[in-house]
Design a protein that fits this description.
Blueprint: H1 11-25, H2 31-47, H3 53-68, E1 72-76, H4 78-83, H5 85-95, E2 98-101, H6 108-120, E3 133-134, H7 140-143, E4 144-145, E5 155-157, H8 163-171, E6 175-179, H9 186-190, E7 193-195, H10 199-213, H11 218-226, H12 230-251
Parallel strand pairs: 1-2, 1-5, 5-6, 6-7
Antiparallel strand pairs: 3-4
Helix pairs in contact: 1-2, 3-10, 3-11, 3-12, 5-10
The structure holds ligand PTJ.
Ligand PTJ binds next to helix 2, helix 4 and helix 10.
């Protein structure tokens, strides 16, 4: 990995960029994953590279839904494995979810390598290595799922996902949660709960929330889920970006070192 000085003003951003590059070189991340990451970075600039209130609200509902689920599954792709392997395993442990490697650009070798990364991060069980079922309506490679995982799941967390697959999962009757920095993406609009935040901030926060919310009764968790409206959340994200950009334009961003 390139040596990035900690004093660099954009240290964190460069560090995660390097993780994605390293993931690709190791055969974990797809080449298209580099493009997806760049798109994510651009949207992260727009929200100010911090967790914004509508994302926090969506996270609470996502965690409540995962805790309430009978068969929750967290899907893992090449970008997620490169960026947040430990956090993925920890989140699955706290909410009691299964982990399934499910790839858009599926190759058996990548599936195996990602499963290895998850095991190194502490996962006891990783599904998706021998999928026997197919998501209806998706061509063979993209639609392969594990009978004990996504196939059976009632709630699926599919971060950084393609819109087509999100839509197919919704059609199958799954409750779909996504993490996507682009509030305009098809995935963001198709999912039942969309967390518009960088996964590197979202997963640690969701772990914290899950540890607290585990103590709540089912009634309380159901109450949190009941009032949720994903369309409102996506509108709030767009309005947040609009207001932030307006403020920055009016204040003159060139005068400021830190953007908030
Ligand atoms: O590993 P595979 O084969 O499953 O492929 C994974 C990618 C990401 C290449 C594949 O799912 C894909 O092409 O996805 P898309 O359609 O590019 O969508 C990815 C979405 O994730 C985009 O809307 C990005 O803005 C968003 N994104 C990228 N990086 C992050 C992110 N959202 C949150 N956190 C990020 N770090």
């Amino acid at each position: 990995m390139a040596n990035i000085p900690k004093s660099h003003p954009r240290y964190w951003s460069l560090l995660y960029r390097e993780k994605i590059i390293e993931g690709m070189e190791k055969g974990i991340t797809a080449k298209a994953g580099l493009i997806a990451h760049g798109r994510g970075e651009a949207f992260d600039y727009l929200i100010g590279e911090k967790t914004i209130p509508p994302a926090e609200e969506a996270m609470k509902v996502a965690v409540a839904k995962l805790l309430l689920a009978k068969h929750p599954v967290i899907s893992v792709n090449g970008n997620v494995a490169a960026l947040v392997p430990k956090e993925t395993v920890e989140l699955a442990n706290v909410v009691g979810a299964k982990l399934e490697v499910n790839l858009f650009y599926r190759t058996e070798e990548r599936v195996r390598k990602i499963a290895e990364v998850l095991r190194e991060a502490g996962a006891k069980e990783v599904l998706g290595l021998k999928p026997t079922k197919r998501i209806p309506g998706l061509e063979s490679e993209r639609g392969k799922v594990d009978e004990e995982g996504i196939w059976k799941a009632d709630v699926v967390l599919v971060p950084l996902e393609d819109g087509d697959r999100t839509e197919a999962l919704v059609r199958m009757g799954k409750f779909v949660i996504t993490v996507d920095l682009n509030p305009l993406s098809r995935s963001a609009r198709m999912a039942h709960v969309t967390i518009v935040d960088n996964i590197i901030r979202a997963y640690p926060k969701m772990i914290e929330l899950a540890k607290e919310m585990k103590r709540l009764s089912r009634e309380k968790l159901e109450e949190i889920v009941k009032m949720y409206d994903n369309n409102r959340i996506l509108s709030e994200v767009l309005l947040y970006i609009r207001d932030r950009l307006t403020r920055l334009a009016e204040e003159g961003i060139w005068k400021r070192k830190e953007l908030s």
